Amino acid sequence: MQPKKKAILLALCISILLMLAKFVAYFITQSNAILTDAAESIVNVLASGFAFYSIYLTTMPKDENHPYGHGKVEFFSAFLEGTLITIAGLIIIFKSGYDLIYPKQITNLFEGAAIIGVTGFVNMIVGYYLINAGKKHRSITLEADGKHLLTDAVTSAGLVVGVILIKLTEIYWLDGVISILLGIYIIYNGYKLTRRSVGGLMDESNIDLVKDIIAILQHNRKDPWIDVHNLRAQQYGADLHIDCHFTLPYYFDLNQVHYEISAIDKLINGEAHHKTELFIHADPCLPACCNYCKMKECHVRQEPFRAEIEWTIENATKNQKHFDQ
Fold first, then answer.
1. Strands 275-284 and 227-236
2. What is the value of pTM for the model shown?
3. Domain boundaries in the chain?
4. Cα distances (Å, whole numbers) of residue 59 to 130, 238, 272, 319
5. pLDDT 10s digits, 258-297
């Protein structure tokens, strides 16, 4: 089975088992705080189910209707997961507020805390596993699901401490207060996940990623590569699409231009951490480029080389040759 599918299927099966365990803990305690954790587990199951479907789509090859592949669905999956987390947090807060006004009896807290503690520990292990798998296979869906499970593990840990505190102090209204605090924490994490996914869906620039690409080009710069500008990057799941303009000597024939562009393609795919598809537009050099062009034996040079203009995110992403700046 494909590694990403295997990872998310494992997370889905474990989420179902943990959800059942948490509801058992709620039924034996009637604790609103434990119900909070159990309700979030429903979100875990729904999110993991959709994540599995989105990863199934991302493994499909490109087709006529999806020439860039199906990777964008991973951002939608993360958006859905963040939305579900936020909704769960809101429901938890409203339910806890109601129970503060109309409290109910709580029993078997130690037993319930033990069950929640075990489920939290399992979620922590699975969460780290998914995050590492997501980074390895460049899957925002796996990372999102892993971070969600880590959030669940943190709330479970806080819940165990709170339940033990309630049992020791016999201050039972703390049950509702703890639930509200956990609900706020859940909403915050849902917002962060949703914000990242919306950025991906809107093709928000990944500044760190663009900086890495520019640094690779600058470090391996060749004399015919006079300048690069209008560099843009879009991420589709694990794949990265880059388009840019490269200024080359105007007297190069098509074979030489193709050779230089192929060298750039091999460089990016050999050193970058993403599988990258490049669309490079070749621009001819102009006399104003001569002062920063390093071509040693140029028969059309009109002024001597003075200094190299270092490629940075400030100049490589602008849609103009460097001498226009």
1. unpaired
2. 0.58
3. 3-201, 207-324
4. 17, 10, 21, 34
5. 999 999 999 988 876 667 788 899 999 999 899 999 998 8
Which residue ranges of the chain lie beneath pLDDT 70?
Answer: 1, 59, 62-64, 66-72, 74, 99, 103-105, 138, 199-206, 236-239, 272-274, 323-325
Whole-number pLDDT of residue 201 = 64
Task: Give the side-chain half-sphere CA count within 13 A for 210.
Answer: 23
CATH of domain 207-324: 3.30.70.1350
Superfamily of domain 3-201: Cation efflux protein transmembrane domain (1.20.1510.10)
